[in-house]
Amino acid sequence: MHHSLNEYIGCTDFVEKGTENVVFRTCYEERNRVIFQIGTSDAVRALTAAQIVCKDVAAIDVNMGCPKSFSISGGMGAALLNKPELIHDILTTLKRNLSCPVTCKIRLLKSSQDTVELARRIEKTGVSALAVHGRKVADRPRDPAKWSEIADVVSALSIPVIANGDVFDYGDFARIKAATGASSVMVARGALWNASVFSPEGKVHWEEVKREYVRKSILWDNDIKSTKHTLKEMIMHYSCLELPEGKGVIKSENLADIAKLYGEERYYQFVNENRFSSNGS
């Protein structure tokens, strides 16, 4: 992977070698906000990947909680939870060689005592913070997150703990912090379904959020796979992928198709004409 300046939209693109696939895109304005999360099963490869992006992001995070098959089969994500020596190797290698902060994310182990023990070992590697997802590997997303077990980790550590699990409304941010004592909160599905979950005024209707997301995707030339994934998550939560809209998203091959599906052809044309003309093309 190599990085290059994308002059058309004023961003830095990290492109997969041998292809033109943009793996990651960021910009200077986001330098102190973006945490780059990696999945890894090897300390040396983790360092190689982190060194490519570390100067353009605020911190590097290692995902040690993902239970999905693509992570587990590659020895990544939650597959690391029962390999404390490998966890130590990965985190200490990153800490020793990177100038930016290093964090990681785990999920609950079989017992709260086991989780706390692992969290303490992780803290000793020198990471700046630890995110804890309040479910075990075998738990389903519909199973309630165990906020009390996150609280056990918070009580045992001196570094900041980031609580994750069952945050779907703005009020949940205060509730999970009060229940766990965590320093901050991570939200995943709630943000995918409706990004206005972060608004103190309450959530905007998902149709409005979806349309704004489509326009932002066009404006920033977002990767089509990423755009489709987010739209499908929203539709699956609020509607159904089997309806015409969902089928249209699935069939879309590029942002032009998405623009047509949502009646944003004029905006798509306007953005592209101005993008190229403003750069002397």
Count up the domains. 3
Strand order of the largest sheet: 4-5-6-7-8-9
- CATH architecture classification name of the largest domain: Alpha-Beta Barrel
What is the overall silhouette? globular
Unreliable parts: none
Fraction in helix = 40-55%
Tally of DSSP helical segments: 12
Biggest pleated-sheet summary = 6 strands, parallel
Note the beta-strand portion. 15-25%
By CATH, the topology of the largest domain is TIM Barrel
N-to-C order of helices and strands: EEEEHEHHEHEHEHEHHHHHH
Q: Which class best fits the helix and strand makeup?
A: alpha/beta
State the fourth-level CATH superfamily of the largest domain.
Aldolase class I
CATH class categorisation of the largest domain = Alpha Beta
Number of separate strands: 9
Distance between the termini: 27 Å
Question: TL;DR?
Answer:
It is built from twelve helices and nine strands.
What does this structure look like?
With 281 residues, the protein is α/β, with parallel strands linked by helices. It has 3 domains: 30 residues, no CATH class; 152 residues, TIM Barrel; 72 residues, no CATH class. Helix content is 45%, strand content 16%. The chain is built from 12 helices and 9 strands. The protein has a 6-stranded parallel beta sheet, with helices on one face. Strands 1-2-3 form a 3-stranded antiparallel beta sheet, with no helix packed on it.
